[in-house]
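Hi L.,

As promised, Cytosolic protein:
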Amino acid sequence: MAENKLHPTVSKFKEFVSSHPHIIQEVRDGRATWQELYEDWYLLGEEDPRWTTQKEAIHSDKPAAENVDTGAGALVNQFVTLAKKMDPAQLQSHLYNLSQTLGTIQGLINQFRSAPPPQQPRPEIAPPPQPFPFRKD
């Protein structure tokens, strides 16, 4: 029932993905998003070499058992992979902005710590007037 409400091109893309399971793995691995893949499929078509080269690249890699990492080695591999994908100029820009923000926050905290709240001297409090004046007759 939900498929009837989908746009026809989306239904065709779903069929295309089901016939190319390497696309699903690409999304799971974080190499692409569904939106990117759909746009590529829509613009390039099903016969584009992008779809076959990726499929061959996936199959030519190590066997699936060797791709599975466990423990600290997997974490190190993830960091190395992320480091390869990073743009050094963009990373430096983000770190500079973070440094500036932390400096500003530290400055505000130091301002509030070093300046104690001003104490106003208390005036001498006079006794309140009597509400019922008593007079002697």
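Residues 1-63 form one domain.

Thanks again for sending the construct details.

K.
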